[in-house]
Amino acid sequence: MLELASQGAKVLQVRSVELGMVHNMPVFVRSSFDKPEDIDPLGTPPGTLICSEEEIMESHVVTGIAFSKDEAQISVRQIQDKPGVAAAIFGPLAEANINVDMIVQTSRRTARPPTSPSRFPASDYVRARDTITGAKDRIGYARLDSATDVAKVSVIGSGMRSHAGVAAKAFAALAARNINIRAITTSEIKFSVLIDAAYTELAVRTLHTLYELDQV
């Protein structure tokens, strides 16, 4: 739930989930259209229980999908392959209090000089671009490309830890819909893809069907 909240799901605030996790307090999510006086305090009203993993009888491979259209991407092209370059890029961004959510860097084994694409909230796009441009001499890049018409789609589920091929199925499904993936990041229970914003709804619907979330 913390991953879902932080990746753009408009259900719970991130801080509320953090407090529940730190204090081991179950959080029950109900519809805001239900009047408190109409709920039976002794019954179990409809809703979603957010609790520790040990309390769940079964764990779904994929729990939910979140997306955010408020995104921007900046790619620093043909940077030097030497120690300290990453610090030269992200140091000024940190000093400007700009959060970088996705970082992808090409391998030094590629034929072309390394590239470092990064994703930012769209509200920080202009400041991020100006900050990197101002540090061009320190970074030593040849070209800076950017895009503001991108969206991030995240697939979250604790079951990913014990099931292989979860992300591969998503990549194949998106490819079948002719949806190009600009960048990918992964963690133990989540992976996110950056795509063109115009394909956001199609991508979310495709992944919902793929993981049978539309049948829950």
Low-confidence stretches: 109-113
Largest sheet: 6 strands, antiparallel
Count of alpha and pi helical runs = 7
Number of strands: 8
Q: Which quaternary structure do these chains form?
A: single chain
Shape: globular
Average pLDDT score: 81
Query: What is the radius of gyration computed over CA atoms, rounded to a whole number of angstroms?
Result: 20 Å
By secondary-structure content and strand pairing, the structural class works out as alpha+beta
Strand content: 25-35%
Order of helices and strands: HHEEEHEEHHEHEEH
What spatial order of strands do you see in the largest sheet?
Answer: 4-5-3-6-8-7
Cα(first) to Cα(last) distance is 17 Å
Task: Provide an overview of this structure.
α6 (166-176) packs across α7. It contains 7 helices and 8 strands, in the order ααβββαββααβαββα. The strands form 2 sheets. It has a 6-stranded antiparallel sheet. The protein has a two-stranded antiparallel sheet with strand order 1-2. With 216 residues, it is α+β, with helices and mostly antiparallel strands. The protein has helices spanning 2-6, 14-22, 85-95, 125-134, 136-139, 166-176, 200-210; strands at 27-29, 48-50, 64-77, 102-103, 116-121, 143-156, 181-187, 190-196. The protein is globular.
Give the arrangement of secondary structure elements:
Layout: H1 2-6, H2 14-22, E1 27-29, E2 48-50, E3 64-77, H3 85-95, E4 102-103, E5 116-121, H4 125-134, H5 136-139, E6 143-156, H6 166-176, E7 181-187, E8 190-196, H7 200-210
